[in-house]
Design a protein that fits this description.
With 379 residues, the chain is α+β, with helices and mostly antiparallel strands. It folds into 3 domains: 3-54 and 147-239, Gyrase A, domain 2 (2-Layer Sandwich), CATH 3.30.1360.120; 57-145, 2-Layer Sandwich (Alpha-Beta Plaits), CATH 3.30.70.1400; 286-359, Beta Barrel (Elongation Factor Tu (Ef-tu), domain 3). It contains 8 helices and 20 strands. A 6-stranded mixed sheet has the order 11-12-13-10-4-14, with helices on both faces. The protein is globular and about 60 Å long.
């Protein structure tokens, strides 16, 4: 796809002026890094990073039928949500495969905002439109062009944001959302993120995104805030064992296989519910595992995973050097009999077998005393 055919976020010119290296991603031109992935990654773990995630899609559901519609469309239990709360969830197909993973925000009693992955916006909207046509009392709108989205992530994120807003951020629990003003700019502030760290995501009108970005950069400079790109975002989410759609999740993979069953309702008639119940009763043919690769060699997407005897049992779905953990790590699907923590496997890295140990999820957990990580988030 040529650069002219790629979409640009409202912050495209800001990124270029800051010297970001831009790459195609999900149909968009996005910053992959500003200085180095390692520096940006470490900034998020120790201070804060600011990400442009305006490529994400937003669907709005309103009306008295919005909750029943979402209860059928999504796999988690929307009935649990009250205004100001959010939950991680998925659109499933009838086979239990994942059409997309997402976050549902309950803004008001009959108003919800659903954030979906950038590359899946058109596919997801077609799915939503088809299902919504059979539900009365609900209105669904694709509002992806009405929002820009900034993610402020890291242990100093609250200290950076708090002086800029009248909102009491200490009263905003993890996976909650509220309207606020930041430096006089109207936003939705959500305590969500995709890095495994404390942080916030700010929904803002596209026209106000550059001013909000610069305000946050200026406010956080002394605290060590850095602009961060997709490269650091990927290594951060991998350390936190968070799935990436198209790698750990796809239409042939269920959330049960991905180890995300706690985000899928046990009851209900949501799309894919029958298939999910069968998997819970009968078991699955593959499991997502976390691999810590010993010795040299970086595991990459697509590399074969073997038993110690040399039998191929899977492929790496995501892999990288982990900048904070200083280890080579990966995720992969293997048969259940090879999925126990402590099991030794090998990853074929450029033709050489490297020993890999299955470890418990997640690779990285933020230190105690910070907001507990309760779930994953869609990107």
């Amino acid at each position: 796809m040529s650069e002219g055919a790629l979409r640009k976020t409202p912050l495209y010119e800001v990124h270029r002026q800051m010297g970001a290296r831009m790459i195609p991603f999900g149909g968009w031109t996005m910053p992959v890094q500003y200085t180095s992935i390692l520096e940006e990654h470490r900034a998020v773990r120790t201070a804060a990073g600011l990400f442009d995630v305006s490529h994400m899609g937003e669907f709005e559901f309103t009306g008295p039928g919005a909750r029943p519609l979402l209860q059928h469309l999504t796999a988690n239990n929307v009935e649990k949500l009250r205004p100001g709360q959010a939950q991680y969830s998925m659109f499933l197909n009838k086979r239990g495969g994942t059409i997309d993973d997402l976050i549902v925000y309950c803004l008001e009693e009959d108003r919800y905002l659903v954030v979906v992955n950038a590359a899946n916006i058109e596919k997801d909207w077609a799915h939503v439109s088809h299902v919504a046509a059979h539900f009365g009392g609900a209105r669904a709108h694709n509002r992806s062009d009405a929002y820009a989205l900034l993610a402020l992530q890291g242990p100093r994120s609250q200290a950076i944001l708090a002086p800029l807003t009248e909102a009491d951020l200490t009263a905003l629990p993890f996976y909650h959302v509220m309207p606020a003003h930041v430096a006089g700019i109207s936003v939705l502030v959500a305590r969500t993120g995709y890095t495994g760290e404390e942080g916030f995501e700010l929904f803002v009108a596209p026209a106000n995104a550059p001013a909000l970005w610069q305000t946050l950069i200026d406010a956080g400079r002394q605290a060590g805030l850095r602009p961060a790109g997709l490269g650091a975002r990927d290594t951060l989410r991998l350390e936190a064992s968070l799935p990436l759609y198209g790698h750990e999740l796809d239409e042939d993979t269920s959330p049960i296989e991905a180890g995300l069953g706690r985000f899928v309702a046990h009851e209900g008639d949501y799309i894919g519910a029958d298939a999910i119940r069968r998997q819970r009763e009968e078991g699955v043919s593959k499991r997502l595992v976390m691999l810590e690769v010993r010795g040299r060699g970086v595991p990459r997407h697509g590399y074969p995973v073997h038993t110690p005897e040399g039998q191929e049992v899977g492929r790496v779905t995501s892999g990288s050097y982990a900048p904070w953990l200083k280890k080579n790590i990966a995720m992969a699907y293997v048969p259940p009999e090879w999925a126990a923590p402590g099991q030794t496997l090998t990853v074929l890295i450029r033709g050489r077998a490297a020993e890999a140990i299955i470890v418990r999820r997640p690779f990285y957990r933020r230190p105690r005393g910070t907001t507990p990580r309760a779930t994953t988030t869609a990107r």
